[in-house]
Design a protein that fits this description.
about 350 residues, alpha/beta, nine-stranded mixed sheet, 9 strands, globular
């Protein structure tokens, strides 16, 4: 299968890698971002009935949690030997920036379990995370009897915020005028704003207005695209990646336009993660396996590793494709198309005889 090369950015490697990061951001056609967080609060908060209320709840969470890492993928157009850009072909430079918030913050047990299960190293985060401070709230207004003077600690924190290399890196993303791609973007954007830009505004209206100025080239939320444009049966990230990886590979084999990715490895400090081989055809052996419908729909299962049903996405995708190919409506469309082609062929044959 494909290998994804990820550059590990820590407090030790950031000074060396900063020029590489800057060049990747400036040369990118678009930039994908993904944050790992110390918690996102309760599902009830995230599913508040109105978007304004949801924003306020996520903002409160962002002020008390921390960012643990930031994933950054820069998609640079691939240029062939003819020095022409090849549509759909990209060199992808991916960076994983380990972060260590210097303010007190809440860590949720469920978030820790999830991160450890997916290979996150908390020891490394504490030892080598790039230090940063969340943006502090503005000082209280001066009164008529006394003028508020910042303390030495507040001045030191303000100086650390101003000198933070992560904030400088985020400013580079903002000034690059490149589209940014996120998955379930609202949570990550609220955290990025609070932790690397400024104190969050009091209302969603102001926050959205600020985002339009911060990202003039646009924000693409793949979860929104999956749910409201593609009407996918599931919208968790791994499902979407594996499904469209299959689609692209089939297009490549058929000589049709497809996505092609390469991962440069000449900038050092790089780890390689192997992806599973792409399956282009459903297998009867996988169709015989029962899959977990809750995992297939949501990307998680309350039973976890003890679940007796399969969480294998190849199994899930094979069942989905098999069901789609045997759906009565699809058969009718195919039959109608076949009848039309037969009728057109008979018409052409009659015209040639005439």
């Amino acid at each position: 299968g494909m290998e994804v090369h990820i550059t590990d950015v820590t407090s030790a490697t950031l000074p060396v890698l900063l020029p590489t990061l800057t060049a990747a951001i400036q040369g990118a056609e678009f930039i994908a971002l993904d944050a790992e967080l110390s918690g996102i609060g309760s599902r009830k908060d995230l599913m508040a009935p109105t978007i304004d209320e949801r924003y306020l709840k996520i903002a409160r969470i962002a002020r008390t949690r921390s960012m643990l890492s930031l994933g950054l993928s820069c998609f640079l157009p691939s240029v062939g030997e003819d020095r022409q850009k090849h549509k759909g072909a990209y060199h992808v430079q991916t960076f994983n920036i380990t972060m260590f918030c210097q303010d007190e913050y809440t860590v949720e047990p469920s978030a820790m379990r999830f991160l450890v299960a997916h290979g996150f190293d908390f020891n490394k985060q504490i030892q080598l995370g790039v230090p940063y401070h969340r943006c502090a709230p503005p000082p209280p207004p001066a009164t008529t009897t006394a003028t508020h003077q910042p303390t030495k600690a507040q001045l030191a924190t303000a100086a650390a915020i101003a000198a933070c290399p992560l904030r400088a890196l985020f400013r580079q993303i903002l000034t690059s005028n490149k589209p940014v791609v996120l998955h379930n973007a609202l949570v990550d954007l609220v955290f990025l704003y609070q932790h690397l830009f400024a104190e969050l505004p009091a209302t969603l209206t102001t926050f959205v207005a600020d985002l339009s100025l911060m990202f003039p080239a646009g924000i693409i939320d793949t979860k929104y695209v999956a749910e409201y444009h593609r009407r996918e049966s599931a919208s968790f990230l791994e499902y979407l990646f594996r499904k469209w990886q299959r689609h692209s590979e089939r297009a490549r084999l058929a000589g049709k336009p497809h996505v092609s990715l390469t991962f440069p490895t000449d900038h050092g400090h790089t780890d390689a993660i192997a992806l599973p081989a792409v399956c282009t055809q459903p297998l009867s052996s996988r169709l015989a396996i029962q899959f977990c419908s809750h995992y297939a729909n949501h990307g998680c299962c309350h039973v976890g590793a003890e679940c007796p049903l399969s969480h294998d996405l190849d199994v899930i995708l094979d069942h989905e494709e098999n069901a789609a190919s045997t759906r009565p409506g699809k058969r009718r469309r195919k039959d109608k198309k076949s009848r039309k082609e037969t009728k057109d062929g008979e018409k052409r044959e009659g015209e040639s005889e005439a």
